[in-house]
Specification:
single chain, 7 helices, mainly alpha, globular, two-stranded parallel ribbon, 154 residues, three-stranded parallel sheet
Length: 154
Amino acid sequence: PRREHRRGRQRPGLPAALEELAGRLTLAVVSSSALARLAACFTATGLDALLPSERRYSAEDSLPVPTSKPDPAVYAHACVQLGIAPEQGLAVEDAVAGVRSAVAAGCPVVGNLLFVLPEEREERAAALLAAGALTVVSSWQELAELLLPVGVAR
């Protein structure tokens, strides 16, 4: 996502699918990036309202001791702050380290290939599944169709 955020562009279908998800689910961000970087990315892409700052968690600066994925601390912290058990959440990750982090914290994971180069998707999908992702999607719309009731994610 970094390349797209730097240019201040949104991926096709991103806002509509995320709005559908946000209408039914509580969305949060769990990242290894600093909160300031997340803020800049979400402001540049117009996603501040869907991914508000109070539901952003950074391994770099939300924890007493900074860490990085695959350490599960940031996912464990996010679950506590959100008031949920890890198995009640769902992580959406595009990196193997992120999948490992969420799985180690007890969160189910869906791999997302949206930000992976087309020529790397097959290999990344296999790696995400091997790391513990339950399934892999290639778009936010596909995720919405997977998670939301029939007829809602259309």
